[in-house]
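Troubleshooting: if your tokenizer reports a length mismatch, compare against these two reference records.
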Amino acid sequence: MTVVPMPKRGKTANPVAKPYEPTARELASQAAYAKRRENRRPVPQIKVSMSDDGGKRIASIAVDHPDPALGYELLAEAIGADSGTFLAGTLDSLAKAVQVGSVVREGEMNYALSMVWGLRPKDQIEATLGVQMAAIHIATMNAAMFMGQAKTWELREAHERALNRLSRTYVAQVEALKRYRSKGEQRVIVKHVTVREGGQAIVGNVGRGGGDS
């Protein structure tokens, strides 16, 4: 607790600081952030309660919403779930990704969940990939922490290798999501331009045996 001393007699207390006036760029950024939040789907938070059952730590996961049934429906819509079974499995998977020992951390749980619905998954495959991406990202950050805390070069190199593998895995997951969303369709059109005498340009598709006639 901090105690503010009383001003001595005869001395004037420090004047109240003038309220900060944000710049025009800050106000514009604040407005853009507010607009983006208005367009975001309503997604409730998750609350985690830890309890003991015969010496075993049990984590109870529930939606934090005044109307639990509505809360679960909003959450299912946000992650592209088609059933309560998939939603429950998704939450269980995220809990495993953020679990430390026998404790599921509520803040980390909501962070991981925000990464999934932030991808705006359109179906359960995208949602599942989002869960894996969240797990890999958290593991990557833990590997970076362990590397910084390593006491020997051997441990540091081991954590560095893990960090590199996890980072490459995350990039591969991003590419996989992009390919899945494009349904594997890739169209590449290559054209050449031939300029003939007199300045007339002829544009045509490039193919085998193609050339100037």
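Reference record two:
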Amino acid sequence: MSLSALGLAARGGRDAAVTGLAVDSRAVEPGMLFAALPGSAVHGAQFIPQVLEAGAGAVLTDPEGARIAAGALAGSPAALVVVEEPRAALARAAALWFGAQPEVMVAVTGTNGKTSVATFTRQIWMALGEPAINLGTTGIEGAWEAPLHHTTPDPITLHRALAAAEAEGVTHAAMEASSHGLDQHRLDGVRLMAAAFTNFTQDHLDYHKSFEAYFEAKAGLFTRVLPEDGTVVVNMADPKAAEIAEIARERGQDLLSVGRGEGCDLRILAQRFDATGQDLRFTWMGRSVQVRLNLIGGFQAENVLVAAGLAIATGEPPNDVFGVLDKLSTVRGRMQLAATRENGAAVFVDYAHTPDAVETALKALRPHVMGRLVVVFGAGGDRDRTKRPLMGAAAAAHADVLIVTDDNPRSEDPAEIRAAILAACPGATEVGDRAEAILRGVAELGPGDALLIAGKGHESGQTVAGIVYPFDDVEQASLAVAALDGRPV
């Protein structure tokens, strides 16, 4: 495929033939286009001499990259493409290179709830007979499955996966749109029919540096990626929802609102909670609907209705959508029932790793629990440090028993991370070893109590000092319950 067919124009008007795309210099083969992208530590242009030696037929970079590698490029036969936004250009080129995508594509962004909404949307589609997948934090799941290393992968990985899914007969796909992925234009080549906004709270300030920059990245899904004839599904319960709704109106996009207030298209009227789930009553176009949700947590109703809104926005009949909501199952690592003690006390695992998510998870569990709420939680290293005391305060405000432990300390001193959390909840118990903390949390449970293990959710490893050790919260919870209740493992 030529550079011009990929939407790229090289200096000097050269229209080189391209044999493939690469962002990893080690993967470059003769004739390939290498995207030399700016990075947080190193500019990809540093590797241009290496890829030219490997036979790269073209290089895509920004003006800074062209300056860095000017010497190597001067005598090279490779075509040079210089643009202000090389990430966006790569995303569009990857879409053209791989070509095929599932016919119906939606994306969801927000601080919390992305995985649940994407998964519920896929489950709704599949219950209605559509071959569907969801892509994100838990990988690619559904009618075709594969692992992913990032919530929103790089454009080459993303479009390779979308093309493979389409080749396997997948017609519907729901994907998570992370703020990093949006800021780095990874979704720019995805053809969306609809996009959703869940909420906006503190996270990733280590990357975005300010709330304004973080929100601007999220908003990019609606201002840049979703076309003007797309539909925006908004959870109006969030204070930032009004800004997303205004973007939709200004661009002429259709708007489908979810919430509890007057005027919402999908309006929650009432919820009734019990030990295994909840009954939900809502309205659609003025008509009352009542469904059973086998999901723990009041916030799940909002996630479910946002997913229902995406399904409706992509052409599914509303009555058919509402008729399958009782078939939705818990998303792995999201308010997942991990184990139950012989005395009836339940242990839940949730990915809550922000102050708002911890508060939301604990408040959502409370109506389902007759006794005490116990929480085991920590905070990740090499991430936003300001949220650590806020997480401690959120847990102290909404749980009865607190155990502060390690999450993924990464390169930081785990004790310092725990100390920052404990500063806001001095009455908590500190147990650095996460397995021991979970065991002690389970040991606290009496009849009617519940334990929330927060932070790692679906993750199967714990990162300490650059090493990923096998660790699964659900597995550890099951082992703890078995050990304490004398059950065989």
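Descriptive notes for reference record two:
- Residues 255 and 393 are 36 Å apart (CA to CA).
- The longest strand covers residues 266-274.
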